[in-house]
Amino acid sequence: MSRNLILGTLLSSLVLLAAVVSFVWTPYDHAALNIPDKLQPPSTQHWFGTDHFGRDIFSMIMVGARTSIAVALVAVGIGVGFGVPLGLTAAARKGSWLDEVIMRGNDLVFAFPSLVIAILITAVFGAGAVNAIIAIGIFNIPVFARITRGAALSLWEREFILAARVSGKGAARISAEHILPNVANLLIVQGTIQFSLGILAEAGLSYVGLGAQPPTPSWGRMLADAQTMVSFAPHLALIPGLAIIVTVLGLNLLGDGLRDWLDPRIRVARA
User: Fold this and answer.
1) How confident is the model at residue 270, as a pLDDT?
2) How far apart are CA 252 and CA 124, in angstroms?
């Protein structure tokens, strides 16, 4: 097992543990205002200090982890749920009008970053975590569609697929029984990477006010609130920034480690 996989698992597990524990326990109520204790530096009473409303930052970081993970996880689920079937269909119908429609649709979505999509959605439905999930999820669909199609195309030329076609299996059945299991490893690794990008996207959307709304804590909004107080209370920006860095780094290392572990060619080359 590679060091990247071990370190990525540890960092990701730490963030996940904080999110899970926040459902049952936090040092303080993350929404409780305590103006007399505002802008306290890190101490034994408040491990990460307090913000400009006197709220405990450690408690907000824990609940913010829950928010970030939930948004990114559902958004990746949307990408997998729609993108993988589209990619499999496009590969099975290579060169047909359906393949062209799917891939040109992917190109159209790629032309609009998730932030632009979020602005369009929030202009109609208003800001919120649900709309952030939809925006990030829509952006993930063409990512998984392209990766699935690219991996599946090479498999359609293999002998075992030819044998399956000769036995009378249709394209849909071959895609489900033979193609999908053989591209699953690639999708797992890409899912981990997209999960880390989802964390970043959620933080970015919250930073500009399009993500989770108060009183739900969000790492991105914590950074936005801290930008005018960095000179006299740097911990307000430093701590949520570090939380984002640790989470994204852990997920990227996890994805890199999973790629090495799941790909037998890399394992043989390093042996």
Assistant:
1) 52
2) 34
